[in-house]
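Record minuted for completeness.

…
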Amino acid sequence: MNLKQKIADFLASGLYVGKIPLAPGTVGTLIAIPIMFLYWEKGVLAQIFITISVFLIGFWASTVVVGDTSNTEEKVDPDFVVIDEIAGFLVSMIGISLTPIHLLIAFVLFRVYDIFKPPPIKKFEQLPSGLGIMADDVIAGIYVLIIMHILVKFFNIYDKFRF
């Protein structure tokens, strides 16, 4: 494995968290929370910038890890690649304050959407290489983002305790 592949493996696996044998996607999703704490209070533009950055890094890293899959029909998304879960969960929290209840609701919803992939999420998984790995989780994150904004704005799901 050359240096480029080692760096890609390190990033795609969420700093090797994805190598944990038990529920790597769930554990990988949790890695997004410390990232949120670093910049979330800086506002929506910072949230979007960091989320897009994670997506682009994930696209590159997962493409290097799986190679060119444009000529294959089968899904190629190794379990240890969790940067897609990190990016998807970041998407699901854009514009939402970091409170325990918001994080819990978004986490549970994101994992449900990521695991069951309701239409059209599953279609995005069929895109080639790193794009397919990243896109389905980002779309799941968008679904959850919409739900979270509805819950916060219309159902007043708000927790006074903020981190």
About this structure: Helices lie at 3-12, 24-30, 32-39, 44-66, 83-92, 100-116, 121-124, 129-154.
